[in-house]
Design a protein that fits this description.
The protein is an all-alpha fold. It folds into two domains: about 50 residues, Arc Repressor Mutant, subunit A (Orthogonal Bundle), CATH 1.10.10.60; about 160 residues, Tetracycline Repressor, domain 2 (Orthogonal Bundle). The protein has ten helices and no strands. Helix 1 packs across helix 2, helix 4 packs antiparallel against helix 5 and helix 5 runs antiparallel to helix 9.
C-alpha cells in the first residue's frame, strides 16, 4: 500500500507548476532544466520528482490546466438561448477575462505545445478544438449559410481567436480600452464580417477574400 499524499500536496504541486511555467516562458522549454526548476522552487531535484515524473510531465500539466481553466470560464458564460451576437460577445469577454494573469501559461501554450509527444499533443489539441467549436456555434448562427461554408466560417472563427490571443502583447491595464470593451469590439468586428460574408453569394465572398487590398475575412 503506497504512502498517502500529504494534505498540501496539490498546493505544492501548483506552486511548482507556476515556477516551472515562469522558467519555460523566460528561457523556453528547451532552455530550462529540471535542476533550474528545483532551484527556483527551493527544493532538491529528488523532491521535485515526488511531484512530477519529468520536465515533459510539467509542460503537459501546465498547458492542460490552462486550457481547462479557459474551458471552464467559457462554458460558464455560454448561453445558447441568447441571440448569436450577444452569445458571441459573452464568450469573448469570458475568454479575455480568463486570460487575465495568465500571460505566462498562455505564451507556453502557443509556443511550446509542439514540444510534447504526439499522444499528449492530441489530448491538448482536442481541448483547443472544443474551445474553438464553442465560438464557431454562435458565429455560424449569425447567417444560416455560414454553417455550410467552412471556407468562410473557419477564417472568421480563427480571426477572433487571433485578436483575443495576442491581446496580451500590447494591452496595458488602465490605458485605452478595457478588457471587456476590447472583447466587445473584437466580437463586433466578427459579427459584422460574418453577416456581410454570409449574405454574399459564395463566389462573391471568395472574390472578396482574394481581392487585392481587401481586408481578409475575420478569423476567431
Amino acid at each position: 500500500m503506497g504512502r498517502p499524499r500529504a494534505a498540501d500536496y496539490d498546493a505544492k504541486r501548483d506552486a511548482i507548476l507556476a515556477k516551472a511555467a515562469g522558467l519555460f516562458a523566460r528561457q523556453g522549454y528547451n532552455g530550462a532544466s529540471l535542476a533550474d526548476i528545483a532551484v527556483a522552487c527551493g527544493v532538491s531535484k529528488a523532491l521535485l520528482y515526488h511531484y512530477c515524473a519529468s520536465k515533459e510531465d510539467l509542460l503537459d500539466a501546465i498547458i492542460a490546466q490552462h486550457l481547462a481553466d479557459l474551458l471552464t470560464a467559457v462554458r460558464a458564460a455560454d448561453d445558447d438561448g441568447a441571440p448569436a451576437d450577444a452569445r458571441l460577445g459573452k464568450l469573448a469577454r469570458a475568454l479575455l477575462e480568463a486570460y487575465r494573469d495568465a500571460d505566462v501559461t498562455h505564451k507556453i501554450q502557443i509556443n511550446e505545445l509542439d514540444r510534447l509527444p504526439p499522444d499528449k499533443q492530441a489530448r491538448l489539441k482536442d481541448m483547443e478544438r472544443e474551445l474553438v467549436a464553442m465560438f464557431a456555434a454562435p458565429i455560424a448562427a449569425l447567417e444560416p449559410s455560414l454553417a455550410r461554408r467552412p471556407e468562410i466560417l473557419k477564417p472568421l472563427v480563427m480571426s477572433l481567436f487571433g485578436m483575443l490571443n495576442w491581446h496580451y502583447l500590447w494591452f496595458k491595464p488602465g490605458k485605452g480600452l478595457s478588457r471587456e470593451a476590447y472583447a466587445d469590439m473584437a466580437a463586433g468586428l466578427i459579427v459584422e464580417g460574418a453577416r456581410k460574408l454570409g449574405a454574399a453569394r459564395p463566389d462573391q465572398a471568395s472574390a472578396r477574400a482574394r481581392a487585392p487590398g481587401a481586408r481578409p475575412p475575420k478569423r476567431s
